[in-house]
Amino acid sequence: MDKAALARLLEDVRAGRVDVDAAAARLSALPYEDLGFAKVDHHRALRAGGPEAVFCPGKTPEQVVAIVGRLAAHAPNVLATRCDATMAAAVDAAGLPCAYHALARLLVVRPEPTEGLGLIAVAAAGTSDLPVAEEAALVAEALGNRVERLVDCGVAGLHRLLAHRDLLSEANVIVAVAGMEGALPSVIGGLVDRPVIAVPTSIGYGTSLNGLAALLAMLNSCAPGVSVVNIDNGYGAAHQASQINRLIAKIR
């Protein structure tokens, strides 16, 4: 249930197309549905602008199937993050329409086209950063945003980034994904007057400390307008980018 769906339901009640009892039945699962092992939050999209996602690690395939099945009964583009092929196969075998993106380890249940609001640019410093960058891009698209991807444009070859300067300037918000020393967000933040969401990845040699070095470098960025999410958290970056993009669309 999101704001648009709630508005349609209320309009149907006012117009007499849906009676009060039927409307009450449709709202009965709000704010959550108790499955015993999980309380499925059908109210999330109404509150936060996007439906609840399922974080798959630690859950059984059966639990994932049950949760995404209930979420998909109320909304399209239900996301299951950090999903492996076994869990994706279980959802598919349950007869739920879905699309599995192996690189991003992301499953989209009840996939539907979105409106393509505004523009979010997702820049990956290196090819090794693509799994996290693609998670961010796919989640942003599922939330209804237009996304452009910039790949392998890290600071070791700065000309590769500068070739996309016009696109960076056009974007409402930029998600910059980088491992190693994590310098890409600072460089982008110094080039454009757009909010930059920095995503450190766990890519790098020994002293990168599985992304800690990139995280600390991004937190210490000298470029203004750079915010930072957790290591490998493409999902969180996409949500923040979507919220910014939608606010800009309302202002305009």
Secondary-structure content class: alpha/beta
Strand order, largest beta sheet: 8-7-9-10-11
Q: Identify the CATH class of the largest domain.
A: Alpha Beta
Based on the coordinates given, report the CATH architecture of the largest domain. Answer: 3-Layer(aba) Sandwich
How much strand content do the residues show?
15-25%
The CATH topology of the largest domain turns out to be Rossmann fold
How many helices in DSSP terms? 11
Average the pLDDT over all residues and give the rounded result: 89
How many discrete structural domains?
2
Q: Would you list the SSEs in sequence order as H and E?
A: HHEEHEHEHEEEHEHHEHEHEH
Distance between the amino and carboxyl termini: 26 Å
Biggest β-sheet description: 5 strands, parallel
Shape: globular
Radius of gyration: 20 Å
Runs in which pLDDT lies below 50 for 5 or more consecutive residues are none
Overall number of strands? 11
User: Fraction of residues in helices?
Assistant: 40-55%
